[in-house]
Amino acid sequence: MKKVIALCLAVCLALGCAACLSGCGGEKTTLYVYNWGQYIAEGDDDSLDVIAAFEEKYPDIHVEYSTFDSNEIMYSKLSNGGITVDVIFPSDYMVGRMRQEGMLMELNFDNIPNYQYIDDSFKNMAYDPENKYSVPYTWGTVGIIYNSKFVDEADVTGWELLWNEKYADKILMFDNSRDAFGIAQYLLGFDVNTTDEAQLRECAAKLMEQKPVVQQYVMDQIFDSMENEEAWIAPYYAGDYLTMVEENPDLKFYRPAHQGFNIFVDAMCIPTCCKEKEAAELFINFLCDPEISGQNMDYLGYSVPASASKAYMDPEVTEDPVAYPSADMLEKATSFNFLPEETARVMESLFMEARNS
């Protein structure tokens, strides 16, 4: 018997197997998860390691986890057939686009019973009106993060702070077209879902005007730059601010309510290239478990779309007005809708022109 076991182990090692299941046979299912960077608890600072906990619960499933910087990068890779993944985390407007373009599978909610915990206010959303293709993961708002050691509070008056020459080379800007154009649209008083090409060109001109004061265009790089005080001002997501302020307490968060700001929902979806749909649905269901969701969001700082999860979160987080703004504040927020393909193409082209001018 010992010889059989030894032989089995030798075969497994020779083949490079991750695990040897029930004798010499059997292989784990590999689940490919594609998420935003810095967007799941990984065991840092005594947080829950979500993926490890999932693999412990489902030992026959191995998660291969990779990240993207923007909705547009994720969309481009999937639409070009550059990758095969099983679970993705697009934002609301991108869910709408991918749904309309036939890039998402309908979910089998028999495999996602924890969907019952999602608050009704996050169901029947415009991007998925029949709740067939997505499950909300987080929600949040966009504002301005600034370092109070270096930035004069008198200058924190609105989105125009990102154009202030006084802070040239200390300002970061979004490295994706939709968020960048959204800021220009709020500043110029335009609808953030406009399809008017003349208005889009005005926004591009405004972004070109900003270019000389921008240190760099970033996404996940914002963490190091702001925490280490290499930059002092940046637009970004409220949930990420709450992570950054733990490293640098001089950072503050400001929403230009008088001009408007973006409110978003990021969702869990299964793309049509998925090879392991049932395992993908198990993963989505696991992330919707109130205890798992609560511990995950407690670490991330993002707002949770399931009130039941708050019972497992630090009250300091659930009562923080940055993560959970007042109803009056939320009245000033708007969501990005799915734009027609032509409009999205024009916006992306204009952004790249402005960014690289």
Describe this structure in words.
This protein has helices at residues 2-15, 50-57, 71-79, 92-100, 177-188, 197-210, 222-227, 238-247, 277-288, 290-300, 315-318, 327-330, 341-355; strands at residues 29-36, 61-68, 87-88, 135-147, 171-174, 214-218, 233-237, 251-254, 261-268, 333-334. The chain has 357 residues and is an alpha/beta fold. It folds into 2 domains: 27-139 and 264-324, D-Maltodextrin-Binding Protein, domain 2 (3-Layer(aba) Sandwich), CATH 3.40.190; 140-262 and 334-355, D-Maltodextrin-Binding Protein, domain 2, CATH 3.40.190.
Question: Short description, anyone?
Answer:
It contains 13 helices and 10 strands.
Sum up the structure in keywords.
13 helices, D-Maltodextrin-Binding Protein, domain 2, three-stranded parallel β-sheet, alpha/beta, five-stranded mixed β-sheet, 2 domains, 357 residues, single chain, 36% helix, disordered N terminus
Question: Are there runs of 5+ residues with pLDDT below 50, and where?
Answer: 1-25
Q: Rough shape?
A: globular
**Tell me, what is the CATH class of the largest domain?**
Alpha Beta
How far from one another are the termini? 71 Å
Q: What topology does this entry show?
A:
Layout: H1 2-15, E1 29-36, H2 50-57, E2 61-68, H3 71-79, E3 87-88, H4 92-100, E4 135-147, E5 171-174, H5 177-188, H6 197-210, E6 214-218, H7 222-227, E7 233-237, H8 238-247, E8 251-254, E9 261-268, H9 277-288, H10 290-300, H11 315-318, H12 327-330, E10 333-334, H13 341-355
Parallel strand pairs: 1-2, 1-3, 5-6, 9-10
Antiparallel strand pairs: 4-7, 4-8, 4-9
Helix pairs in contact: 5-6, 5-13, 6-13
